[in-house]
Amino acid sequence: DPLEEINLGTVENKKVTYISKLLQGELKEELIRVLHEYKDCFAWDYNEMPGLDRGLVEHRLPMIPGKKPVKKSPRRFAPEVIEKIKEEIERLLKAKFIRASRYAEWISNVVLVIKKNGKLKVCIDFRDLNTATPKDEYPMPIAETMIDAVAGNEIMSLLDGYSGYNQIYIAANDVSKTAFRCPGALGVYEWVMMPFGLKNAGATYQRAMNLIFHDLIGKFVQVYNDDIIVRSKRKEDHLCHLKLSFERMRKHGLKMNPLKCAFGILFYC
User: Boundaries of each Reverse transcriptase domain copy (predicted)?
Assistant: First the structure.
């Protein structure tokens, strides 16, 4: 469906998400009202993302017996690249995803990845740490089941977790293992929130989603990591299904990325 921009904020402070342009009448009006009612389930900025309750889930980093900590040697970067890394570190510190690290036994290195648009993305090379971590065998859903699940429905909404992995805390005893070295005088930092690139991060996130939506999955909710589908066989049931899903998000502090969501997508036979 073509999408229509909806502002859940004010003229001065726009908070945008998207609904199907094909929606009309009362269903459209009621959907917009529901999105306003549950706009606290979205995050338009990192400071609107408090993190999931530690009692629900934490990411742990157990070690394979006999594996010794590895401290990587510093890497050299061009001055313009160091500036890019500095900007990213400042962003992560402001979001409270990382903090300064001292006396870490494990130290990984920063790496730069070229994105499809040609821009540089700052990542952490966790290969040594991942090698020392046993695999979490938590079952992941089969992607095809997400596609199969939408068959026979009249309407669905697509939701995407806001910076999904970063909503989960690292277990306090394991934070120092995630330390990474920045070039020059930028220092050493460690992750407070679960970053991308850690072994088992996907399993930890899926476990959290299954715990949050456990009794709704298979009925009208499908979850594949940070992608969530809310689907309804009848259009008149969809707002109720969305409300029940939003209530779970609100209860646990789970935040969606409104710019990657699409609500009220209609099916036509």
Answer: 115-263
In angstroms, rounded to a whole number, what is the distance separating the alpha carbons of residues 224 and 247?
19
Task: Give the C-alpha separation, 227 to 223, whole Å.
Answer: 6
Give the three-class secondary structure for 171.
coil
Q: Write the burial class of residue 188 (CB in 10 Å: 0-12 exposed, 13-18 middle, 19+ buried).
A: middle
- Torsion angles phi and psi, residue 217, rounded to 5: -65, 130
Model confidence at 269: pLDDT above 60: no
Q: What are the angstrom distances between the C-alpha of 216 and each of 20, 40, 172?
A: 24, 21, 31
Helix count (H) and strand count (E) of the chain? 6, 11
- Beta strands 108-114 and 120-125 are antiparallel
CA–CA distance, 28 with 18 (Å, rounded to integer): 12
Reduce the DSSP state of residue 247 to 3 states and report it: helix
Work out the mean pLDDT of the chain and round it to a whole number.
93
Backbone angles phi, psi at 26, to 5 degrees: -65, -40
For residue 156, the number of C-alpha atoms closer than 13 Å in the C-beta half-sphere is 21
Residue 171 burial by Cβ neighbours in a 10 Å radius (0-12, 13-18, 19+): middle
- The token pair at 79 is 């001055």
Residue 180, classed as helix, strand or coil, is: strand
Domains and CATH numbers, the chain: 3-52+140-165+202-266 (3.30.70.270), 79-137+169-196 (3.10.10.10)
pTM of the model: 0.91
- Mean pLDDT score, 136-165: 88
Per-residue pLDDT for 260 more than 80?
A: yes
How far is Cα 27 from Cα 17, in angstroms, rounded to an integer? 17
